[in-house]
Amino acid sequence: MAETAVKEKESVFQFGKSERKLLTDPLNDNNPITVQVLGICSALAVTSLVYPSLVMAIAVVFVTAFSSLFTSLLRNYIPKSVRMIVQLVIIASLVTVVELTLKYLNYPVYKQLSVYIGLIITNCIVMGRLEAFSMANKPWRSFLDGIGNGLGYGVILVAVGVVREIFGKGSLFAGSPIEFKIIGPTANYLINTTDSMLFGWYANNNLMVLPASAMFIIGIMIWIQRSYNTKLVDVS
Amino acid sequence: MESTKYVVIFILILTAVVAVSLTGLREATKAQSATNEDIFNKRAILTAVEDYLPDGQKVAGLSDEKVLEIFSKMEQPVVDMEGNIFEGVKAESIDMAKERKKPELERRLPVYVYEQDGNKLYILSVRGNGLWDEIWGSVALKSDLNTIAGATFDHKGETPGLGAEIKDNPSFAAQFEGKELYEDDGDYVSIKVRKGGARDPEHEVDGISGATVTADGVSEMLYRGLKYYQPYLDKVKQQSLLLN
Questions:
Q1: Residue A215 · residue A161 · CB < 8 Å
Q2: From CA A142, how far away is CA A138, in angstroms rounded?
Q3: Chain B residues within an 8 Å CB radius of A95
Q4: Mutate to test the interface with B, among A82, A104, A113, A164 (most CBs of B within 10 A)
Q5: Number of separate helices (H) and strands (E) present in chain B
Q6: Distance between CA atoms of B221 and B152, rounded to whole angstroms?
Q7: What pTM was estimated for this model as a whole?
């Protein structure tokens, strides 16, 4: 891990170069999904549509950010022998907060994500950050690190969702108020494959709706990322 | 290393704080969440009669208040398997998942009578098994109690893109419109989801490729679920004959 203890004694909420790095590092050089290969389970499961992926991404950003904050606040008081249990209690209660809030604000999306909200608890990214970072850093930096890692996860999630929804269902943001239909066999779609001369051959790819397709897409993303970001390539 | 006493006290305080705050949040959101769930379920039921909503509206276009208003105006009898009506119970208070766990003869069956321009539509609820978990749906019958006016399905955990198409693909449920429950001579046949394409235009609909088990589940659910209502439907038919 690149993040070691840093010189402090300045304002609590300072935002300098090293803080910015906490936010941007997980987006590329240290992405939780494509570089650390964590959190794959939910990345495969919820990404068949963009809208649930987006809600899931927001939920994970919230959970990573605040669990990092609370763990960091308590880090000097948490008994070492039960620290994992304490972290789990913090994560689980934040996930419950997400679940209750979603049920309150948007019940249809809550129904759609169903068990996957609960599964944020077992997302290795969350606990990984608590163990690796928050237990040894101050609250503000931990909070930023949590947001950064949540975003790094969310960006990939939404990107995979976009690919899978376009090729699997021919739409974008299905299920949300701004549903956009791109290609399909009825007149509701932008490109209507039944009367189009050019796209008459087109059919949705059923593989894309199945979780396995996310495996390929993430694999291709890792390939693309490594081909331009050569420092990630392990030459040993 | 901390003492055992410290560990125990720390954990106790932590769990107490978490428990109290989560209970507080739950209590604060409980009423609204229950209303949301109620409206969500009612919208699902209304989808079965989507074509008959006032002013050609769609279920998604109805406001929450309008949905509740439609339900408060509906006649909502609850019947048993012999066609007797339970007094003082409304259909919307019936939880089909709980009823399904009871022995068949003790089950209570909800009926929603949707009235539009003097036309009565009977919305019946069915529940069965798909491939992975439960599936359920609502079927609306026209006033002849034979022709289907609309249907809607939902599921707990069918495979997205395959079995889940019974809900996600509106053209699956749309096929049921106009199908008939009875043969011309009055025999009950229900509607079948046929693998490889419907052959009988009155009693069959096309299956979904790759979702044979879910489709068979739908067929079975409709056959058995709608059969439960037969004694009640027969009584309604007799009554309307007497009135004429």
A1: no
A2: 6
A3: none
A4: A104
A5: 7, 8
A6: 13
A7: 0.79
pLDDT digits (tens, 9 = 90+) for B71-83: 888 888 898 888 8
Minimal-distance CA residue of chain B relative to A99: B26
Helices then strands, counting H and E runs in chain A, come out as 9, 4
B75-to-B92, B94, B144 alpha-carbon distances in Å:
10, 14, 17
A101 CA: distance to closest CA in chain B (Å): 8
Interface check B20 vs A, CB under 8 A = no
Give dist(CA B29, CA A106) in Å, integer: 12
* Euclidean distance between CA atoms A224 and B84, whole angstroms: 67
- Percent of chain A topping pLDDT 90: 37
Q: What is the pLDDT of residues A14-63, one digit of tens each?
A: 788 888 888 888 888 888 888 888 888 888 888 888 988 899 999 999 99
Q: Are strands B78-79 and A191-192 parallel, antiparallel or unpaired?
A: unpaired
Size of interface A-B (CB pairs under 8 A): 62
